[in-house]
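thought: user wants a sequence for this fold. calling inverse folding tool.
action: design(structure=
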């Protein structure tokens, strides 16, 4: 317990790194994956918990993976028509952030100073295929 407490005190005290961060935290990030509104909500809760805990890690990132179920808005024909994106499939390769998770979750993440980045799905490779569960296993680890 004493070592952990001393370590936490050192982190809170700052350091010689960028912005007063300890050198070992400069250029570090915590990252999670999200696709669909359920994981979007979880990402907001995760980011809020990190902020509430006053994490010193300078970069909090949510990767929005294409190829999922899409946001509620993306699955709403009237919303898609209003956006001029009727031809975009919610699980397709051309989705944008608000079609992957709800724009309200994106706004909440931005208020929490989270970097939101759209990515293509994890590719099926011989390595990934050899893992029980394939690429879906990464969702359990995210």
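)
observation: tool returned 142 residues.
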């Amino acid at each position: 317990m004493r070592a952990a407490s001393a370590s936490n005190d050192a982190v809170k005290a700052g350091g010689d790194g960028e912005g007063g961060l300890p050198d070992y935290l400069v250029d570090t990030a915590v990252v999670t994956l999200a696709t669909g509104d359920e994981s979007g909500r979880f990402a907001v809760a995760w980011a809020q918990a990190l902020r509430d805990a006053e994490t010193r890690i300078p970069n909090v990132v949510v990767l929005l993976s294409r190829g999922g179920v899409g946001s509620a808005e993306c699955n709403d024909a009237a919303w898609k028509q209003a956006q001029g994106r009727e031809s975009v499939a919610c699980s397709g390769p051309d989705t944008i952030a608000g079609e992957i998770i709800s724009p309200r979750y994106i706004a909440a993440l931005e208020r929490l100073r989270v970097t939101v980045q759209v990515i293509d799905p994890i590719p099926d490779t011989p390595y990934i295929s050899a893992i029980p569960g394939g690429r879906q296993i990464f969702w359990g680890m995210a």
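thought: summarizing for user.
answer: Here is the designed sequence. DSSP finds seven helices and three strands in the chain.
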